[in-house]
Every structure is written in structure tokens, then in C-alpha cells.
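Appendix B, record 7
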Amino acid sequence: MIKKTKTTFTAVVILVLVFFVYQRLKPKQNDYEYLKKLPQHIAELVEKKLAGEVKRFVAKDYSDQENRTYQDISGLITLHALQEGEASIYVVAPQVEIDSSQNPNKATLSFKAAMARGPKDAGALNVIPESASLYSFTVHLQKTEEGWLIKSASWQREPVP
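C-alpha cells (predicted):
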């Protein structure tokens, strides 16, 4: 009986050690992959009109070339969430550039996003959305204790083909 208990205890200790070693060594999502997925994640939050969740990605000291501040961006996000109807957002080809040599805590994210009024799953009878726009975004982020935050951004409306 003592030998069986000792063997069970040893097995449990080995399993716990293996678990801790695995947790330390398992592949973690690196910053590049995280940032590449970030525009799509934020787009999904915008589609669901989760303004508070979207605002968590914007730094409180946000400022851009158009002199917009956190309060301005927060207002735009809230305004979108209050609009009636559904919006669909399609993120195209996100490109990530992390300055690993100078400052690995800063990154630039570039992507295009098509935004359309109306649901994504409208079906064959409603193929053409109520309105559509295409934008090019350049977003500057900084890694903080809270995660990657948007410090500034610029966007430009593109002609819809």
C-alpha cells in the first residue's frame, strides 16, 4: 500500500512538473501575429457596437496630425455605436512593422478596410449594401503595461472600384 501511494505521489509530481515546463515553453502568440489580427478583432467589436471595448485599444494620450485627441476618437466610436442599422467591416491585407532595432515597443500597422451599411449575411436578395466606403489606415501603436495601444492614426477614403 505504501509503495502504491509513493508511486502515485511520484506520478502526480511528475505530471505537475511537466505541466509547468509545458506552460513556460509552449509557443506564445508573438507581437507580430497579435498585431496582424488586431484590425479584424477591432472590426468585429465595431460591428457588434461594443464601443467601450473598442476604446480600450486607444491610448488616453492619443493625438494625430489632424489634432484629434482621445476625446475626439472616443466620440467618433460612440457616434458609430449609436447609429441605427448594421455595419459590416472587411479588413484587407494588414501589414505590421515593429521597430525591433530602435524600439521594440512601437509598431506601425497599415491596412485597408471596406465598410458597408447592412449585415454581412444579407443573402442573395440584398447583395448590394446600402452604402460602402473604402479606407486606408496607418496606425501607430505602443506596447504598454496594458498591452498594445493606439497612439495615433491616419486614414484616408479611397475610391470604391
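Remarks on this record: Confidence is low (pLDDT under 50) at residues 18-28. The chain has one domain: 29-158.
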